[in-house]
Sequence to fold (364 residues):
Amino acid sequence: MRNRTGPTREAKAEVAVSPVKINGTLVQPGTRITIDLPVARLYTHTDLHMPVQIVHGARPGPRLFISAAIHGDELNGVEIIRRLLRHGSLPRLRGTLFAIPIVNVHGFLDRSRYLPDRRDLNRSFPGSGRGSLTARVADLFMKEIVSQCSHGIDLHTGALHRENLPQIRANLDDPDTADLARVFGVPVLINADLRDGSLRQAAAEQGIRMLLYEAGEALRFDELAIRAGLRGILRVMRALGMLPSKSRVPVEKRQPLVARASSWIRAPESGILRTTVRLGARVEKGQVLGYIGAPFGDLEYEVEAPANGIVIGRTRLPLVHEGEAVYHLARFSKIDVVAERVEAFHARLAPSDSEESEGEAPVV
Ligand SMILES: [Zn+2]
Fold:
């Protein structure tokens, strides 16, 4: 990597950029290094680390963190960050990028959402250095990464056996955050309340602007979700002036497609589910989204849409208990426009059959 060995000429000329300090190490402007943050010692006597790559630009600019696998089984973001770090424009970065592909290393090893103490890291922020294991990981992440940043993008997927249409959740009441959410370029934005203990809440308390990207399913790679995430991050970085724009920044000037409300539709009965709608489908009130039947086929229940909307999440597992959340429906005031944009989004980003999914970053 070009900048790994030391400051570039540009960095020497620009004295205004100061080094970044992380885990006691000074990262000089114009350099790129990987630092292993000590998380905890395992009971095998092995030390566990959270790997962080810092790309510290030679020129001043925002400090952005991109994090993934805060829920240890959510993998699309790990691949998004891998592709981002190979992107050809990074040597020209202004400002600083903190890339943390695996925040919850314990969960990642266990292929689990949680930590070994069964806590959810995204309900444990800002954490405490003397608290539970999960609280200590949260505290480390806040102190070493988040507190140094002006902006953040946290990458998530649906939970186990659930898939999400690519969507941004953010505090859209803040105009600057709303602009970044629009720039990201996914068809669905959700003005999400801050949850107690979430990274978004802890970051907001420090005045850090954050987007949460949700796309795909736990323990799976989803090529469309990965492409949309990488494209969105690059667009946000260009809008922030961190990366050079090819032409003008493609800001969506059209009305943002903010969901008025969203809710999960629950299974009316237990049984075996046959889904008849795809993710992103536009559905009408009363439309059948799926059928729940018995193994012998003698009984069948319809799962109906309670309102007009777009399916932004759904279960992938055909085995359901009554009361289980099976479809996530978002309501919009301009549903025709949303439906069109979801179509266009899929057409633009869907991998073609001839294309290899394990490839270089797409042109964005
Ligand atoms: Zn998550």
Summary: The pocket of zinc ion is lined by residues 71, 74, 156 (CB under 6 Å). Residues 1-15, 354-364 have pLDDT under 50 and may be disordered.
